């Protein structure tokens, strides 16, 4: 599948700054995300990638700089602001309630109520519709479920990841941010999740993927954003550069001007 | 494109089922046993008596269930109830306040304690065990001081109205029992069919997840403690209606009895799992054993022993049924 | 007034009660205060947190010794568990006097001033027998809790007074002749008394005599009897003689009660303390502080005092 080649930018950030006392986590960092692409964000520890992601998802407010969504400036003060703007995040620990069912988790915090008096006065949930919608969302991502009513804790790690991904894909309008989605998974389940991520992109959403796992990054990313020392030092085309050169750029063994121009994206 | 495997069931099937129907089975088994030991047990009158005897703990247990579902606990429930009973009876019997107003003020007092518990847990982030251990003592002391350790008697008839009865066939049923059953039905409905109810479960099961999905976790927890306080006030009214007095020493065993009922009913002390109807079954189990053993002429110590064994069985079943799941 | 001071500084005596708020002990404290003043002694008080709290009483004992108390009176929550602490106190020369409840063994304290609980039971048993008349007895007992000496003494004394086979005074087991058709434990609590009576009525609807361990239990039993429409034909007896209980006798709810005298216990205790401080003579043995049968309707062959007498001597809110 080709990456979004149009230069339509879903999200961009310019000159983001964040300081914690004497430590500068973000040092005038830039960021660009295109429509319907998978952008991997990589960087060594302390490179500023998690701070960057927190700023984009509303978990922190940068000291300076600008973030734009679909061309318009946005100011997120809380993660809910970002969510309302159509940016969903899949957290590293998934944020699912294991005792609750798949359907309940999918709609957690955004439950559907029954139409009419039953919904408005008695506040009754429309369980049937939530179950049907959940099945539809899962099916769209080609995840096969026995029953939406089964508790999430009965699922394996990869399957739970699937539920978390399906939730964000179901509600995201622009961007899905995924924080180390394959970190806790074995080979078979990682493959399943990577396929899932491709399908999310194929639905037209943009995915920002934070990962330490180079093989996985190279397997699905359309472009690779390299963070180092609080800045963005390069954006790479994974098909035109080797994994070892990428890692070298990350650690500073290689500098951006030493990279072939067609390796940049 | 590789096929995604079907989600498999990983839970420990039999124990899981047992955990859900366990309390009902235990109750039915106990009833069957006592029916064979005493021909008085299964009479309408006796069963009505048992319902009356569990009515107060039953309503307290509703509040306790809500609190425990959020992974909290409320050790002050019984003594707060006693405080409510003393407030409403002293106002009505000694200060001549009209009965409805006295009842409202009494329930107001217990609700305030619920609010206090909730604020200390959510704003100051103190563990519920510690907070309610403190409010347990505070409520007890206030009750003793305000009542001068004297029982309040000579209550106006309206105050004990819920202790009156109506006939179902040959059997007298106390109005208060109907109140208890109605409260259980209402709470079960809210917990199962409304978003607010599901949020209680989510907050208890994974508070971080609840927060990240936009649920106002502190508000849910605060609401639960306040609602529990209201329920303790209603329990106070039922207690007054049943005994005909305001007893400052009431409620001391209810503190743990309510938790026992909740645990026997299958609700997990770790939060996020359980049903409120289970607590009704739990309260009934304890009531049936107490009643049945007295009918059999067995010492009350055995009732305490059996309750202890049942509690361990209930918690063990809950834990083991979850062991199979990952 | 104007008793001689025995010391330049007032000597200190202590009183430790089971709980702070029970009217029985409130009255005892009052009696002790008055007696201490009359004898030129300073009284300091303490209590357990609740009925059965031994640790709280041990702490109070230690604090009073530290404050210099020469004599300590105590109504023990746990007859055995308190003994080591009392022993320590006596080894330091402090005289320890038990009031109301004995220690186990009896001589763990220098002296005991208490109600003869067996006698209290006997009096109400005699009354109940006479009040029942010629009817065949069907007795329900609402007891304290298994194994408690006071509960056993009152229960067994009642059986003996009623004319049935009963264990003797020293026994801790509750006697159960055939005439006793139902037994339940109330833990001295009104609500549990009500519950016990309700269940017993289910078992035997024709119970005609009810023995209760104390008056709150009796109040609960009466409520259950009334709800079942049985209050008229049942002889309900109790022990204590608190003012609420005497009121219940006046209103006909309780037929008779054995009244005990916490003030007498306190007075005797303080007098013994004063004697020890003045002359060095330690008190000893068990002194019965007396118990009187109070009934609204006297019955033939049994001596009882009337309600007015009972009210004048009762403890609690008049």
Write structural notes for this entry.
The complex is a heterotrimer of chains A (265), B (326) and C (318). Chain A has a domain at 9-99 and 173-263: 3-Layer(aba) Sandwich (Rossmann fold). Chain A is 32% helix and 25% strand. Chain A has helices at residues 49-57, 79-84, 102-106, 116-120, 127-140, 157-171, 187-202, 214-220, 243-251; strands spanning 9-20, 23-34, 38-43, 64-69, 72-74, 87-90, 175-179, 206-210, 223-228, 231-236. The longest helix of chain A has 16 residues, at 187-202. Chain B is globular. Helix content of chain B is 71%, strand content 2%. Chain B has 12 helices and 2 strands; from the N terminus they run H-H-H-H-H-E-E-H-H-H-H-H-H-H. By secondary structure, chain C is α/β, with parallel strands linked by helices. Chain C has 2 domains: 12-115 and 261-283, Response regulator (Rossmann fold, 3-Layer(aba) Sandwich); 117-260 and 293-313, Response regulator (Rossmann fold), CATH 3.40.50.
In short, what is this structure?
The complex is a heterotrimer of chains A (265), B (326) and C (318). By secondary structure, chain B is mainly alpha-helical.
Would you identify the CATH architecture of the domain at 9-99 and 173-263 in chain A? 3-Layer(aba) Sandwich
Report the major sheet of chain C: 6 strands, parallel
Write down the CATH topology of the largest domain in chain C: Rossmann fold
Sequence of strands across the biggest β-sheet of chain A: 6-7-8-3-9-10
- Which architecture of the largest domain in chain C would the CATH scheme give at its second level? 3-Layer(aba) Sandwich
Coarse morphology of chain C: elongated
The strand count of chain A comes to 10
- Main interface: chain pair and counts: A-B, 40 and 32 residues
Computed over alpha carbons, the radius of gyration of chain A is 19 Å
Please name the CATH topology of the domain at 9-99 and 173-263 in chain A.
Rossmann fold
Radius of gyration of chain C, CA atoms, in whole angstroms: 20 Å
Distance between the termini of chain A: 16 Å
How many discrete structural domains of chain C? Answer: 2
Which terms would index this structure?
heterotrimer, B: 326 residues, mainly alpha, ABC transporter involved in vitamin B12 uptake, BtuC, two-stranded antiparallel ribbon, 12 helices, 2 strands, 71% helix, 2% strand, globular, disordered N terminus, C: 318 residues, alpha/beta, Rossmann fold, 2 domains, six-stranded parallel β-sheet, six-stranded mixed β-sheet, elongated
């Amino acid at each position: 599948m080709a990456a979004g080649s149009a230069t339509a930018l879903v999200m961009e950030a310019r000159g983001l700054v964040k300081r914690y006392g004497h430590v500068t986590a973000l040092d005038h960092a830039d960021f660009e995300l295109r429509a319907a692409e998978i952008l991997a964000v990589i960087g060594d520890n302390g490179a500023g990638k998690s701070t960057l992601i927190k700023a984009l998802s509303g978990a922190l407010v940068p000291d300076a700089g600008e973030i734009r969504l679909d061309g318009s400036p946005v100011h997120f003060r809380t993660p809910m602001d970002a969510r309302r703007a159509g940016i969903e995040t899949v957290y590293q620990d998934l944020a699912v309630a294991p005792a609750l069912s798949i359907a309940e988790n999918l709609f957690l915090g955004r439950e559907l109520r029954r139409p009419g008096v039953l919904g408005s006065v008695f506040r009754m949930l429309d369980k049937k519709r939530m179950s049907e919608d959940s099945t539809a969302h899962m099916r769209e991502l080609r995840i096969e479920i026995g029953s939406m009513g089964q508790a999430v804790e009965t699922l394996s790690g990869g399957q739970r990841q699937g539920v978390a991904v399906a939730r964000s894909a179901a509600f995201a309008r622009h961007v899905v941010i995924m924080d180390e989605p394959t970190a806790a998974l074995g080979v078979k389940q990682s493959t399943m999740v990577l396929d899932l991520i491709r399908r999310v992109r194929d639905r037209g959403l943009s995915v920002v993927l934070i990962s330490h796992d180079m093989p996985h990054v190279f397997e699905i990313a359309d472009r690779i954003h390299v963070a180092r020392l609080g800045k963005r030092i390069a954006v790479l085309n994974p098909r035109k550069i080797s994994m070892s050169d990428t890692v070298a750029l990350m650690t500073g063994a290689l500098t951006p001007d030493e990279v072939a121009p067609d390796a940049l994206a | 494109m590789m096929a995604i495997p079907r989600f498999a069931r990983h839970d420990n099937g039999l124990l899981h089922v047992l955990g859900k129907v366990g309390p009902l089975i235990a109750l039915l088994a106990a009833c069957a046993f006592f029916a064979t030991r005493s021909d008085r047990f299964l009479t309408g009158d006796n069963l009505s008596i048992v319902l009356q005897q569990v009515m107060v703990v039953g309503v307290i247990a509703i509040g306790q269930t809500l609190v425990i579902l959020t992974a909290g606990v409320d050790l002050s429930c019984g003594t707060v109830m006693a405080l409510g009973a003393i407030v409403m009876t002293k106002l009505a019997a000694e200060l001549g306040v009209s009965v409805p107003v006295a009842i409202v003020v009494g329930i107001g007092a217990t609700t305030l304690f619920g609010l206090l518990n909730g604020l200390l847990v959510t704003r100051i982030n103190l563990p519920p065990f510690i907070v309610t251990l403190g409010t347990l003592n505070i409520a007890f002391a206030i009750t003793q001081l305000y009542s001068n350790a004297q029982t309040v008697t000579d209550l106006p008839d309206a105050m004990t109205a819920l202790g009156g009865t109506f006939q179902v066939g040959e059997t007298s049923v106390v109005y208060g029992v109907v109140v208890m059953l109605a409260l259980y039905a209402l709470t079960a409905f809210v917990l199962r069919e409304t978003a607010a109810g599901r949020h209680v479960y989510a907050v208890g099961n994974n508070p971080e997840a609840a927060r990240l999905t936009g649920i106002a976790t502190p508000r849910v927890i605060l609401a639960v403690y306040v609602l529990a306080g209201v329920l303790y006030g209603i329990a106070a009214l039922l207690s007054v209606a049943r005994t005909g007095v305001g007893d400052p020493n009431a409620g001391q065993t209810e503190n743990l009895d309510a938790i026992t009922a909740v645990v026997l009913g299958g609700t997990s002390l770790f939060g996020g799992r359980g049903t409120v109807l289970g607590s009704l079954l739990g309260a009934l189990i304890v009531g049936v054993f107490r009643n049945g053993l007295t009918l059999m002429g067995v010492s009350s110590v055995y009732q305490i022993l059996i309750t202890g064994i049942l509690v361990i069985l209930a918690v063990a079943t809950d834990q083991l049924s979850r062991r199979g799941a990952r | 007034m104007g008793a001689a001071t025995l010391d330049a500084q007032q000597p200190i005596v202590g009183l430790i009660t089971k709980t702070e708020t029970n009217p029985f002990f409130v009255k005892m404290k009052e009696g002790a205060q008055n007696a201490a003043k009359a004898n030129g002694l300073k009284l300091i008080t303490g209590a357990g947190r609740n009925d059965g709290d031994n640790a709280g009483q041990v702490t109070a004992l230690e604090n009073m010794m530290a404050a210099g108390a020469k004599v300590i009176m105590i109504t023990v929550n746990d007859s055995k568990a308190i003994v080591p602490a009392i022993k320590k106190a006596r080894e330091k020369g402090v005289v320890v006097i038990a009031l109301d409840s004995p220690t186990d063994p009896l001589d763990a304290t220098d002296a005991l001033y208490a109600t003869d609980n067996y006698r209290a039971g006997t009096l109400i048993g005699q009354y109940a027998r006479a009040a029942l008349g010629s009817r065949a007895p069907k007795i329900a007992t609402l007891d304290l809790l298994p194994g408690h000496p006071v509960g056993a003494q009152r229960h067994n004394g009642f059986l003996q007074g009623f004319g049935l086979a009963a264990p003797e005074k020293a026994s801790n087991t509750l006697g159960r002749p055939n005439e006793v058709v139902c037994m339940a434990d109330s833990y001295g609590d009104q609500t549990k008394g009500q519950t016990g009576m309700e269940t017993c009525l289910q078992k035997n609807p024709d119970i005609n005599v009810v023995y209760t361990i104390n008056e709150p239990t009796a109040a609960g039993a009466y409520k259950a009897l009334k709800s079942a429409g049985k209050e008229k034909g049942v002889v309900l007896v109790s022990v204590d003689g608190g003012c609420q209980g005497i009121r219940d006798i006046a209103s006909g709810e309780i037929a008779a009660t054995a009244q005990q005298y916490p003030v007498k216990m306190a007075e005797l205790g303080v007098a013994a303390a004063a004697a020890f401080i003045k002359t060095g003579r330690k008190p000893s043995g068990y002194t019965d502080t007396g118990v009187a049968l109070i009934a609204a309707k006297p019955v033939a062959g049994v001596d009882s005092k009337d309600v007015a007498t009972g009210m004048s001597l009762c403890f609690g809110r008049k």
